[in-house]
Specification:
Oligomer: homodimer
Largest sheet of chain A: 3 strands, antiparallel
Strand content of chain A: 5-15%
Number of helices of chain A: 5
Largest interface: A-B, 62 and 62 residues
Order of helices and strands of chain A: HHEHHEEH
Helix content of chain A: 40-55%
Radius of gyration of chain A: 20 Å
Number of strands of chain A: 3
Strand order of the largest sheet of chain A: 1-3-2
Structural class of chain A: mainly alpha
DNA sequence: CGGAATCCTCGATGATACTG
DNA sequence: CAGTATCATCGAGGATTCCG
């Protein structure tokens, strides 16, 4: 009981996360840089916008805000700027009135979206497992009555 | 110039992030849950500990702290507790003196590590591309100087 | 419409001290 | 050694206002 009847859209999609062992970075400098980079791109809003633009193609500023729903104007601007600066999105300003600014992914942004795909799929597939773990957390391994 | 001569350990590893289109979650409820779950596991320290345990197998509390280096004792405890609660790690207390507590990944934790693998590889491979984008950010598209 | 600027709050994190 | 508890800080992020 309590299991949400889902459509299994992603869940049965494929098995992109076969238990492969991920070799660690050989160089500590590289590892630090990689860690820093991930810290910036693995952001909450970045991931959502990435998914959105990957799906919709090209969107206006307000469009993105409405589709995400919960994001503030400040964070939307800030996140888009960072993504643009990191080469993930292209920002196009149409010189019309009222202003019209559109955003779309670069190839780099698309490749990042693809890389995150495995994590999304993992989350989809293991939602129940994690929730189960959280429920049983704290219970004694052998309840001796 | 300025390009770091790296060992290319991960960079030439494989191509786990072929530009596949990642289908979005069909159900908004699922998407919300997935987003929430990712928000918890995509944490900075979680990812580092995940990598560490995946590589080393089983480690003591202090071991992990020293290997990561920059983490505070508080965050280490907190992160490990969250990971244990979410079913990512197993915490084993050895009833000896002085105390000895060891941590290792569950299968769920290992699968998450594998899922993140694509992102690590992406970051390794596109470090230069992102840095290049950051350098050229702000420059006019067609410098008519 | 698409921002920039400002103010403000609150939670994440670090530092410190204590304990079993 | 492996924590727990407490206090202090600091910046992420929200709400609001103004502008081109």
């Amino acid at each position: 009981m309590g299991v949400i009847p889902r459509k299994d859209g992603l869940a049965s999609a494929d098995r992109s996360q076969d238990p492969q062992h991920c070799p660690d970075a050989a160089d500590p400098r590289i590892e630090a840089l990689v860690h820093d980079l991930i810290g910036r791109v693995a952001d909450k809003w970045t991931m959502l916008i990435l998914e959105l633009l990957e799906e919709k193609g090209e969107l206006r500023f307000t469009q993105i805000g409405k589709l995400i729903g919960s994001i503030s104007q400040k964070m939307l601007t800030q996140t888009l700027r960072h993504m643009e600066r990191d080469g993930l999105v292209i920002r196009t300003v149409h010189p019309v009135v009222p202003p019209k600014v559109e955003y779309r992914l670069t190839e780099l942004g698309q490749s990042l979206g693809a890389a995150f795909c495995g994590v999304w799929i993992w989350a989809e597939r293991n939602l129940d497992a994690v929730e189960e773990a959280r429920r049983t957390y704290g219970e004694p391994p052998h309840p001796r009555g």
